[in-house]
Amino acid sequence: MTLLVLLQALAGAAIAKMGAGIGAGIAVIGAGIGIGRIGGSAMDAIARQPEAVGDVRSNMIIAAALVEGVAFFAIVVCLLILFI
Question: pTM for this structure?
Answer without folding.
Answer: 0.75
